[in-house]
């Protein structure tokens, strides 16, 4: 069984150039990481080296830990990434530290603990992959180099050795299109705005909320060079983009006889913004355009020989004929190898999962068989919930990476399927004739539910599941806060059995809570867990606050659980208000609706404002900071506001990327709820039915006004998280216990 995966892994290793870079250079990169993470003084207590020979099998990263106590802590790795992962293991398991997106807990004991003997760990996974094409837009779009540097450090510490590096590609496409004869105006008309580039790159969208300013291209080229340099310095493999077949409409002006097919619409957008043009695989322009782009791209950025392209992401192909699908797939691959004979194609397997009714066995076989075995690397993108490898005979022998998708749209909301995540990689590895060659984390958005990603990162170095998740999550809490606390541990065990215990194919990390959705009388308030566990975890965290309040990670988690508790309360008060409306009880409707819209939501906005991670002002300032002029800053801010809310000019994918941010709650969600509840009250008072269609028209004016607003929001936190959380708790927890909402 595993022999197939190993053989394919070796083929990929040979094709992709393997652990490129020099040992000394990678060791220097890790030493610099240690200094950034711990400071120069503590960093002097660590000795780091990179030794390829440490890996018993080529390509399977290995680290070794020894020393400590009175001696230096010695960290050795077969690559820079392996050494960084070893460092992280030492900090976590020996020092009780924690590295996270929100805030890291890095209080080192003195002296540094000794490692008994020598601890050596080898990963069972050739690849530890990270990112989703959508992450580029939902999370990374406005980042500067300082933020990218922190992220690449996080990647290295978590053992990531394969990741997308897609910044700056529009600048390369612009060069290619100009060389082919397109005008600058035609190119500007084609590209989306920055916040929607992910879907432009996959052919779902064009034009929407563009064009891209000239300065955008310059800054993104600069960023991409720095990103690639840093990733390569650790021995990571950056995945560059390749041509997938989608072209601007203007290609038909330059080449009047070109054979293109206009695809169907996507995401409720009309053809002004979707219905992309797809080159026919047999058209002679296809290999020319594909090779022109890749040649220009690799000339600019170099290459590590793995390229990403998605031709049919959430779009039905023009034909279900296997011969067409094979030709379309082969055309993409052949354009790659025309420039890079060692090319390996990284394909998001989302298309097979998203439209299973189209992708029958013959269609799947046609795509997977059109590329030589070992030259197509498939991401089983949503494997923790809806794995594809099990129904495609391990992707017909093509190597695949078992990925945890987990999050959609970068939503806030406590969610996880930790039991499925814990068991999934081993099950895939033991699947008959498995061709699994790695694990991956592929969220659409990051900076949420950090416990889920900590577990997945650890699993990428384990052959077996974590034997006791309750014990693991208790240790996670102690590492995260820097001290073990019984109430904090108990709170996390409650969260583990509730919000983090979703099971079955229906599990999707997409927040559909009434709080963040356009109100209606048909909203679904069911959840997969017992809400009592959330409220009890909330109580326990507050009881630990006297001891743990100095910990930034604790304060973040307390706020996040408070936010979740308020989200539950919104659902409960909504149910009360809806029942009152249906019973025509105006007094009860006004009472429940008044608490929801005039007490609960303002309290949520106030507590969110106490943490820098939950500020709309920070979100929008990131976008504005990228600009080189005030007009450009306004444009970027509007891009960001659209993505958070309407997503399109008419609310095309309304609230898909919802967030719970101070300012967004006050200026967007709260006015919607007030308008809705006022409409229900007027309906009961006047004895006329509530008209959802009319409400939707009215509320759209509010939603659009928010997107077009120039209102500034604070980008610095205000208030004390613990005090504000306690204030909400003391007001609403007794009502929950009593089952009374008055």
TrEMBL record:
It catalyses: Hydrolysis of terminal non-reducing N-acetyl-D-glucosamine residues in N-acetyl-alpha-D-glucosaminides. Coiled coil: none annotated. Residues 1-21 form the signal peptide. One of its GO terms (molecular function) is alpha-N-acetylglucosaminidase activity. Residues 128-463 form the Alpha-N-acetylglucosaminidase tim-barrel domain. Residues 472-731 form the Alpha-N-acetylglucosaminidase C-terminal domain. Belongs to the glycosyl hydrolase 89 family. This is Alpha-N-acetylglucosaminidase. It comes from Cebus imitator.
């Amino acid at each position: 069984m595993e022999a197939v995966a190993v053989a394919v892994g070796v083929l990929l290793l040979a094709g992709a150039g393997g652990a490129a870079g020099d040992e000394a250079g990678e060791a220097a990169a890790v030493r610099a990481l240690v200094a950034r993470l711990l400071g120069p003084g503590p960093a002097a207590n660590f000795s780091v080296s990179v030794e390829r020979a440490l890996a018993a099998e080529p390509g399977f990263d290995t680290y070794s830990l020894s020393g400590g106590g009175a001696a230096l802590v010695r960290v050795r790795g077969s690559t820079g990434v392996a050494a960084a992962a070893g460092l992280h293991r030492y900090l976590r398991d020996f020092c009780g530290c924690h590295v996270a997106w929100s805030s890291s807990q890095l209080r080192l004991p003195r002296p540094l603990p000794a490692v008994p003997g020598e601890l050596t760990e080898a990963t069972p996974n050739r690849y530890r992959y990270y990112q989703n094409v959508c992450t580029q837009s939902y999370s990374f779009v406005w980042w500067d180099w300082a933020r990218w540097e922190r992220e690449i450090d996080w990647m290295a510490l978590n053992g990531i050795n394969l990741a997308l590096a897609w910044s700056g590609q529009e600048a390369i496409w612009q060069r290619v299109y100009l060389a082919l004869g397109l005008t600058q105006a035609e190119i500007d008309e084609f590209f989306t705005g920055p916040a929607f580039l992910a879907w432009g790159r996959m052919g779902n969208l064009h034009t929407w909320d563009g064009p891209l300013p000239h300065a955008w291209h310059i800054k993104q080229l600069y960023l991409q060079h720095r990103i690639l340099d840093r990733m390569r310095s650790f021995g990571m493999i950056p995945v560059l983009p390749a041509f997938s077949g989608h072209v601007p409409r203007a290609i038909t002006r330059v080449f009047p006889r070109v054979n293109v097919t206009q695809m169907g619409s996507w995401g409720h957008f009309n053809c002004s913004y979707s219905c992309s043009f797809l080159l026919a695989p047999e058209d002679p322009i296809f290999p020319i355009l594909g090779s022109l782009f890749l040649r220009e791209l690799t000339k600019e950025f170099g290459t590590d020989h793995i390229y990403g392209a998605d031709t049919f992401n959430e779009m039905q192909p023009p034909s279900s004929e296997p011969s067409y699908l094979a030709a379309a797939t082969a055309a993409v691959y052949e354009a790659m190898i025309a420039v890079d004979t060692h090319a390996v194609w990284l394909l998001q397997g989302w298309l097979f999962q998203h439209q299973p009714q189209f992708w029958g066995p013959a269609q799947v076989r046609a795509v997977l068989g059109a590329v030589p075995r070992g030259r197509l690397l498939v991401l089983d993108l949503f494997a923790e919930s809806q794995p594809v490898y099990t129904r495609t005979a391990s992707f017909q022998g093509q190597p695949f990476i078992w990925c945890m998708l987990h999050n959609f749209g970068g939503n806030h909301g406590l969610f996880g399927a930790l039991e499925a995540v814990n068991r999934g990689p081993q099950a895939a590895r033991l699947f008959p004739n498995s061709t699994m060659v790695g694990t991956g984390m592929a969220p659409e958005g990051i900076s949420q539910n950090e416990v889920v990603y900590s577990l997945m990162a650890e699993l990428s170095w384990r052959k077996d599941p974590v034997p006791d998740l309750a014990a693991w999550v208790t240790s996670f809490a102690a590492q995260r806060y820097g001290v073990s606390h019984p109430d904090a541990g108990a709170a996390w065990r409650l969260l583990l059995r509730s919000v983090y215990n979703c099971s079955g194919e229906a599990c999707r990390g997409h927040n559909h809570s009434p709080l963040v959705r356009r109100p209606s009388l048909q909203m679904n308030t069911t959840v997969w867990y017992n809400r009592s566990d959330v409220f009890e975890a909330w109580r326990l965290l507050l009881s630990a606050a006297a001891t743990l309040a100095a910990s930034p990670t604790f304060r973040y988690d307390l706020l996040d659980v408070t936010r979740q508790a308020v989200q539950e309360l919104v659902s409960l008060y909504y149910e009360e208000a809806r029942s009152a409306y249906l019973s025509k009880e105006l007094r009860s409707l006004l009472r429940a609706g008044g608490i929801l819209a005039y007490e609960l939501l303002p309290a949520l906005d106030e507590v969110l404002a106490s943490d820098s991670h939950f500020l709309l002002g920070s979100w929008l300032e990131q976008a504005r900071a990228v600009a080189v002029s005030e007009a450009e800053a306004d444009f970027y801010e509007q891009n960001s506001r659209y993505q958070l809310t309407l997503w399109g000019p008419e609310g095309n994918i309304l609230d898909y990327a919802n967030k719970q941010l101070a300012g967004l709650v006050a200026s967007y969600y709260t006015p919607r709820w007030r308008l809705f509840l006022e409409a229900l009250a007027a309906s009961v008072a006047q004895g006329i039915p509530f008209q959802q269609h009319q409400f939707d028209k009215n509320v759209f004016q509010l939603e659009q006004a928010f997107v077009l607003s120039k209102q500034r929001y604070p980008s610095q936190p205000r208030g004390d998280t613990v005090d504000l959380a306690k204030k909400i708790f003391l007001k609403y927890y007794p009502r929950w216990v009593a089952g009374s909402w008055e």
